[in-house]
Amino acid sequence: MAIRALKSVPLYIFAVILLGFTGYPFLYMVMTSFKTQEMFFTDPFSLFTPINFDNYLLAFKMGLTGYFMNSVYITALSVLLIVLLAAWASFPISRMRFKLSKPLFMLFVAGMMLPIHSTLIPIFKLTKDMGSYDSLMALVGPYIGFGLPISIFILTQFMSELPREVEEAAEIDGCSHGRIFWSIILPMLTPAIATIVIYNFIHIWTEFIFALVLINSPEHMTLPLGMQKFYGELTVNVPALMAALTMASLPILLVYFLAQEKIVTGLTGGAVK
């Protein structure tokens, strides 16, 4: 046991070093957000500072709340629709036998190879023609379209590995395909759904280019656009900028840790159980 413990010491040392490299920037950002400008210029690299919430109050006064709520609305709606549409599309492809199942699956996979920014101009023209330009809904459609291919790919592969015995037993009991999907298949997809929620949430929450092109009014700006405005107005006031960045990062961390727990629970519990 002692020899085995000694062999694991280098691994723990490497893990601590890696934690320092990855955790220090976030810790520095949080601690700097509590500093005043005078404290920052006096000792910019110090991690020990009195707690001061003036920078957070300043960020709220400059409109961070509006940008934040716009991002929450767009991200929540887009992720919800991505999960539902991807699950509905993956169910017949993976669980039903028909001639077009593989061609349809390959068509969705081909969507993963499409460069997203190559569609920027067509989507801009389509949004203008539809009359949805400079609105929150102008971003929902593109976000759903770009999130569906990878989500369908993950759910189809995961759904294909689920045992068919449970589904066949439900069919014998008289369950329809819709009842089987909602009551049996969907609860078993928890690990895969958590994965695509994390992936799409981070992508949509931090997306900048399409928001910059499709949004013009300040009241419709998302958080990445608002952060650009903060950077322009608070270039000198670094602690206030760090406060805005800290608040913008918290939802990503929260969603990641919550969904990560669901992934572990789903994997350890097992779909068959």
UniProtKB/TrEMBL annotation:
It comes from the Bacteria. Belongs to the binding-protein-dependent transport system permease family. Residues 68-259 form the ABC transmembrane type-1 domain. Keywords: Cell membrane, Membrane, Transmembrane, Transmembrane helix, Transport. Pfam families: BPD_transp_1 (PF00528). The chain crosses the membrane at residues 12-31, 67-91, 103-124, 136-159, 180-202, 238-259. This is Carbohydrate ABC transporter permease. It is a multi-pass membrane protein. CDD domains: TM_PBP2. It is found in: Cell membrane. The keyword Transmembrane helix applies. The lineage of its organism: Bacteria, Bacillati, Bacillota, Bacilli, Bacillales. PROSITE patterns: ABC_TM1.
